[in-house]
Structures are given as C-alpha cells and as structure tokens.
Backbone:
C-alpha cells in the first residue's frame, strides 16, 4: 500500500537540507532465509539470507537523506565451525547493493552507490555463564560508501563479553 513519506532533501543549488513530502512511494520486498545445522561434523551451521526491496519513486534533481537511499539487495552466506572446546568461528560473506545517490559536499555532483562485498568473522568462546567474542570486520579492506554517503571503515575489530544470567 502506498504511503506518504517525508524526507530530508537537498537540491543541487542549495547548501541546506529541507523536509519535503515525497508524494506516494510504493515499497515491495522479499526476505529469504535458510539454515542448515550439521550433525557430528567440524562444521556446525550454514546460513544463507537474501533481502530485496524496491521503491517506485524515481528521484531526479535532488539528494534524499532517508526515503530513497535504501539497501536494494543484500545476500549473505555464513559458516560456523568449531575450532576446539568452547571456541567457534563464524565467517560471513555479504553482497550489498544500495539504491539512491549521495553527494560528498554541496559542491560535488550526485553519485550513485556502488555495490560491494564484505567479509567478516567472529571468534566466540561460549561458556555456561558468559561468552567472549572478537569480531574482525571488512577483512578485505573494501572501500565503500554507505547510507548518507558516509565512507565506512576499512579493517576493524570489536571485542566483547556477554554475561548470561
């Protein structure tokens, strides 16, 4: 069902963002997910997911901050395997294709988002009362721009502790 969407937009000859109704936007999409759990194997779990979204409002002449910059395609494949004892590794490869465009500054022309692949991994130590993890994101150091034209970090790490009560 179409809905009226308000978005922040900026016209090429302006330096200011303004709020504007974008008439009606029809959105249609699909999510597919599949998971396989291995028995008595080095591998524990294999997952695949795919999301598709399409919005029918065609934009020309301005940059939209919200409504028209959306992840059109995302496909992800992940594989989890045991290393030893309580230690597992999870590897994820994803393909991301964002619809819309962005501008790096008020004086640069609009650019379309480019599709990109990401490879991430997580090492997880899982015990009864806690989990320790270390994530390595963007292992291939992919140069990509995400929502709002923001350049995303190259290789980066996160670590954490999750307590179970």
Residues:
């Amino acid at each position: 069902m179409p809905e009226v969407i308000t978005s922040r937009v900026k016209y090429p000859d302006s330096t200011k963002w303004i709020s504007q109704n974008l008439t009606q936007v029809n959105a249609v999409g699909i999510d597919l997910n599949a998971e396989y759990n291995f028995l008595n194997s080095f591998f524990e779990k294999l997952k695949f997911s795919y999301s598709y979204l399409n919005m029918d409002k065609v934009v020309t002449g301005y940059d939209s901050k919200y409504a028209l910059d959306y992840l059109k395609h995302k496909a992800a494949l992940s594989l989890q395997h045991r290393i030893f004892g309580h230690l597992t590794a999870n590897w994820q490869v994803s393909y991301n294709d964002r619809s819309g465009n962005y501008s790096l500054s008020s004086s640069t022309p609009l650019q379309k988002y480019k599709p990109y692949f990401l490879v991430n991994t997580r090492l997880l130590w899982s015990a009864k009362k806690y989990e320790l993890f270390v994530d390595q994101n963007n292992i291939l150091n992919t140069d990509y721009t995400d929502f709002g034209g923001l350049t995303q970090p190259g290789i980066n790490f996160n670590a954490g502790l999750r307590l179970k009560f």
Q: What stands out?
A: The mean pLDDT is 86. The two ends are 43 Å apart (CA to CA).
